[in-house]
Amino acid sequence: MAGGPGCSWSSRNRSSRVAVSANVPRTARADDGPAGRTRDHQGFSLIELLVVVAMVGILAAVAYPSYQEQVRSARRSEVQAELMRLAHFMERIYTETGCYNPGADNVCGTGDDAAPAIATGADHYSVSFPGGVAANAFTLQATPTGPQAGDGVLQIDELGQKFWDENGDEGTDALGLEAPSPEAKDLDWSRG
């Protein structure tokens, strides 16, 4: 059998015959490299790796600040719950003794009246009674520390009024209490 001019038949395997042409040009395929040479596809090129690294870097630059804000918000919610728990603790003391500062003898109006010891599990915040505890009033304050620094002071008082000086623009009064006359926007914990 003839395969045409300039073509010979090769039969290594009898089940398939391959035509080998010396004169007929081969058409270029998608996997051919430069000058029509075929290229093996093993691994990634340096350019492909650099493009992937750049894309991951861009995604990380966009996502990481959002992640950090979510962590700060979760920590803030945790300390808000802790302040509510401590305010309820103070109300139980008032219900049992008639004042917020009964002292060690659990009797109001004696010489040993003092603020009760508070145990808190709030990380990244320092919880205290700024200005002390009176017989009929208290203010609990959570001041951010460490990575939460700059997040603003959170407070709650005996009336359940909540205060958050989010941007630290209020200052202090003579007792060291934050924001003696807070702006209306600072009288809640729900924003941010």
From TrEMBL:
Bilayer-crossing regions: 46-67
Region (Disordered): 1-38, 164-192
Domain of life of the source: Bacteria
Keyword annotations from UniProtKB, A to Z: Membrane, Transmembrane, Transmembrane helix
Start-end of Low complexity biased regions: 10-24
InterPro entries linked: N_methyl_site, PilE-like, Pilin-like
Skewed-composition ranges (Basic and acidic residues): 28-38, 183-192
Protein name as annotated: Prepilin-type N-terminal cleavage/methylation domain-containing protein
Organism: Thiohalocapsa halophila
Source organism phylogeny: Bacteria, Pseudomonadati, Pseudomonadota, Gammaproteobacteria, Chromatiales
